[in-house]
Design a protein that fits this description.
Layout lengths: L3 H26 L7 H9 L3 H18 L36 H37 L1 H15 L3 H12 L6 H32 L2 H8 L4 H13 L1 H23 L11 H7 L9 H28 L5
Length: 319
């Protein structure tokens, strides 16, 4: 017969053990710190096929731009007129252009100039438009009105016409390849910053009305600290989405300007230059246009797809 005191003691031990295990399990199951907006967006992006596909395409293009020697050992500037306009073959997968240069090698090496122009133009556009939009949204008043009217003036300029004016005024036949590339980046940025400015201005106005900004102002924080520490981190998301999509658009803009004879030109190798060189022989050698145009289209599409995926991940309403 069991002693009631022993049974009670055993029950107490069992209960204590059970309580101890439950507490340990509860500690292990206890959730960690809440994820930030960036980490939460990254967690969501990794599960999106659109992001994975576009990201893989962009990584491939970046590797082509950084290390073209991994894909071909052919000199993209070497030309042999004896093989002019020869179609694709086992020796040259994409055939030869009008001068007898390997189209595959030129397509691989052409990614570098196109990516450099797109990235540089995007960075400059975001710096100009983002800074002006942040200041306009924070200060408001006559500063906001002045910047908005200046942006409206640039909005009224057609892109191609504005680029023609800028490039013909500042450019010339004696400019080096680096100078021409800088002028192309400058013309794209000067004609594109108003869009970024308006996006940042709207985000800054929304952030300025939040309680944490009012609290920082009440505690005596200065304007630079409020702008950089409180408003910028919470207003940058829509600008990042715009920058991702704009990067692809700027790569296409470079090709457009090169096709018109205003952008990059030989001896620079870019997809736009290749498309411009093929316009007179499209009927007899369509491969000289097909492959660089296909790579250009795929790259622009990849950045647009990536921008859409980032926009959906950063916007809780679209999840």
């Amino acid at each position: 017969m069991t002693d009631p005191s022993t049974a009670a003691s055993g029950a107490a031990v069992t209960t204590a053990a059970d309580d101890f295990v439950t507490a340990a399990e509860h500690a292990e199951a206890k959730p960690g710190k809440p994820r930030s907006l960036a980490s939460d967006a990254w967690h969501d992006l990794r599960r999106r096929p659109l992001f994975v596909i576009s990201g893989a395409m962009i990584v491939l293009v970046i590797v082509m731009a950084v290390a073209p020697g991994l894909f071909t050992s052919v000199d993209p500037t070497y030309a042999d007129l004896s093989r002019s306009r020869v179609g694709p073959s086992a020796q040259a997968w994409f055939g030869y252009d009008n001068q007898g240069a390997d189209v595959f090698a030129r397509t691989i090496y052409g990614a570098r100039a196109s990516i450099i122009v797109g990235v540089a133009a995007t960075i400059l556009t975001v710096l100009i438009g983002g800074t002006l939009g942040l200041l306009a949204g924070f200060y408001g008043g006559w500063i906001d009105g002045l910047m908005s009217r200046v942006a409206d003036v640039f909005f009224g300029l057609p892109f191609v016409l504005g680029a023609i004016v800028i490039l013909t005024s500042l450019g010339g036949g004696g400019n080096s390849a680096t100078e021409i590339m800088f002028l192309v980046v400058l013309s794209i940025s000067l004609l594109s910053w108003p869009v970024c400015m308006r996006i940042m201005r709207s985000a800054a106005i929304t952030a300025k009305q939040q309680d944490y900004v009012k609290a920082a102002r009440a505690l005596g924080a200065g304007a630079p600290r409020i702008i950089l520490r409180h408003m910028l981190p919470n207003a940058i998301a829509p600008v990042l989405v715009y920058a991702t999509i704009a990067l692809g658009a700027f790569i296409g803009a470079e090709a457009t300007l090169s096709f018109l004879g205003l952008g990059l030109r030989a001896p620079v190798v870019s997809w736009g230059v290749m498309i411009a060189d093929s316009r007179d022989i499209i009927r007899v050698a369509p491969h000289t246009l097909l492959f660089p145009a296909a790579f250009l289209t795929a790259t622009v599409l990849a950045f647009v797809m990536l921008g859409d995926a980032v926009r959906e991940a950063l916007d809780p309403k679209m999840r």
